[in-house]
Amino acid sequence: MEKLHFTFKATQPITHPVHIGVVASGDLEVIMRPTTGDSELDIVTGSDGFHDVWQHVLERFFDRYPIQAKFEINDFGATPGVVNLRLTQAMEALKDAQ
Amino acid sequence: MRNSFVELHARQRAEALLDAGTGRELIGPLDNMISPQLEPQGIVPESDDGVVIMKGQINGKNVVIAAIEGAFQGGGIGEVSGAKIVSAFEQALADNKAGKTIYPIIILDTGGVRLQEANYGLLSISEIHNIVIALKKYVPVIGLVPGRVGSFGGMSITSALLSYLIGTDRARIGLNGPEVIEQEAGVREFDSSDKNLIWNTLGTKQRLATGIVDEIVDDDVVAFKQAIAAAITAHKDSHRDQKSDFYLTLLDQLDPTAPLDTVGYRKMFAAVQPETHHLAPAQASQTPGTPSRGRLWFEKLTGIQNAQSDVSTVLHAKKDGREYIAIVADEHNRFPRVRHGEVGLVEGFTVASVVNDLVAADKDKAVKTPIIMVVDVPSQAYGYKEELIGIHLSLAASAAAYARARQAGHPVVAFIPGDAVSGGFLAHGLQSNRLIALDDLGITIQAMSKASAARITQRTIAELEEATKHVPAMAYDIENYRKLGALYKLIEGVHSKDANDQAVATVQGVIQHALDSLEDAPTDLSFRYTNPIAVKSGRVATNKVRQMMAEQWPD
Questions:
Q1: Are strands B61-68 and A12-13 parallel, antiparallel or unpaired?
Q2: E strand or H helix at B36, and its extent?
Q3: Of the CATH numbers 1.10.10.10, 3.40.640.10, 3.90.226.10, 1.20.1300.10, which one belongs to the domain with range B10-238?
Q4: Are A24 and B71 inside 8 Å of each other by CB?
């Protein structure tokens, strides 16, 4: 298990917290809470040594959705594709909530 | 197109069952109630700790659903997830007592105790057992076993306590997983690689034919919803935890050494004509029984030398107005998997019968006979026939009997001079409202042997021992167990194998103290999380969950 922390510049406020996903094998859960300023991400992952991969996946996500949120991610070995999918689903859930 | 229920995760399952727009989750993922035990062991937690509690309506009737997420840590029950279920069901009990009918539903998708917080898991599951028994006086408690993990371990004992159990043909129900039986009893007892054998034995088709599950529905959301609604309306109750006479009759007819397959067992099951069973108190004899700490202390506390009983492994006797009950070893037991003091099929049903007889005898008395369990149970029995017949039913019968006795006003004290492990402890020990143990490092308290726990959690025994050193939740010794706050008293200076006169007097004195403390005390299990050790350190998360549930429960 490894704990990772990232900060990304963000500009778009969100109004609702959202939760998506399950900490199943090869999967993860994502929580986003409204915040102001930069986005902070706290990640607990069962797969050690993937800091750079997370960095790339998150850069692409924030390029597309520069949302101001406090992220909590619990990851049980999801591939980058699954991470991206869950983040996108969280954005859809956010859209529904708003 | 079918709308699969099995394929859904816990939250979606709960939402799918509830009438549209009525669902409200309590202590949800945004409430930050994460298990404090997992991260220190290097395990990724989940924000809901694998249990979703949702209030809502089914066909206009108020329900509360506890849905276990089988995909997270095998649906194992830990401190937080267990406390969520217990606290929600306690709120439901209070509502029902106040005339506000609400039906509890539990979706089982679970391997039982979460081994990474094993001691909490066992405590929590015993507390679930208690609340289910209490609720059944008011409303049916409906269970679903949709399938993927199925229902195993201590939560299968829960399944046996539920009023009505609904499954699909994709589910399995058993106590000990096949891997654990193979680990404990050898591959010839149960080959955990033989998937057909596993499904034919533990699958719901066999279980429906042999009284372990009540109804099988298609894997379809609407089918589940209809089955639940029908069970609620009809107040269906299988009384599965009160069939001791049936099973004791069946076991009288069973040859434990002869082969028995699923077809043979179905025939046997269908032919049973239940006869009433009452176990007479133990008598003194000339021949010593198989030595064990349980036997030693039973004999010393009751004054019966070489105690003998018609069921060689269950001793009970009244002394000074107290009823003592012990499960003891019999090295010549006709059941080969029950020769070292394990709780087997006969033991659970027999203890249930003894306790039920006592409760019936005291029914109209204002002051109920105190029950003192003498606990020395190295485990439940690990065997193929045990699973085929359903050893979880036996353990459930015993747990239910003790819970009902306590709820009826019998003071129930467990005295632990020996081991207190796993399902054996759930059946004989954990339904007491005072736990007393000897401060002796020869005593093991746990959910599973180290060998099996290491195998299931994919660690070496050395890694497991290292992990247990730092986490009292995982400890195997009584002194670490004490830190959880579960014990009423840890008796110092008395060795478990030396029941000399002074030691016996000390123990008698502590038992008397425990009984005195139970006068006008609650008949539930709340002492375990309300005492100072529990409040300060042992059950902090439990108490936090309870407080949050109380705040969030009102509509």
A1: unpaired
A2: none
A3: 3.90.226.10
A4: yes
The one-letter code for the residue type at B468 is T
Q: For residue range A17-63, list pLDDT tens digits in order.
A: 999 999 999 999 999 999 999 999 999 999 999 999 999 999 999 99
User: Which chain A residues have a beta carbon less than 8 Å from that of B43?
Assistant: 1, 46
Give residue-wise pLDDT tens across range B264-275. 999 999 999 999
The answer to whether ipTM exceeds 0.95 is yes
Nearest to B30 among A17, A27, A74 (CB): A17
**How many Å apart are CA B398 and CA B160, to the nearest integer?**
11
Is B281-448+487-517 a domain of CATH 3.90.226.10? Answer: yes
Sequence-distant (≥ 6) Cβ neighbours of residue A52 within 8 angstroms? none
8 A C-beta contact, residue B121 and residue B115: yes
| Confidence band, pLDDT 50/70/90 cuts, at residue B470 | low
Q: Do B47 and A74 touch (CB under 8 A)?
A: yes
What does the pLDDT read at residue B141?
98
Residue with tokens 């439990």: B542
- B452 has a pLDDT exceeding 80: no
Chain B positions touching A46 (Cβ under 8 A) are 43-44
Per-residue pLDDT reduced to its tens digit, B117-166:
989 999 999 999 999 999 999 999 999 999 999 999 999 999 999 999 99
Burial of B479 (0-12, 13-18, 19+ CB in 10 A): middle
Residue-range domain boundaries for chain B: 10-238, 281-448+487-517
* CA A13 – CA A69 distance, rounded (Å): 7
Q: How far is B231 from chain A (nearest CA, A)?
A: 30
Q: What are phi and psi of B189, to 5 degrees?
A: -75, -45
Contact A29 B47 (CB under 8 A): yes
Domain CATH for A61: 3.30.230
Phi–psi pair at B67, nearest 5 degrees: -110, 125
Answer yes or no: are the C-beta atoms of B271 and B369 closer than 8 Å: no
CB contact under 8 A, A23 and B30: no
Facing residues of B164 across strands? B142
Q: How confident is the model at residue B449 (pLDDT cuts 50, 70, 90)?
A: confident
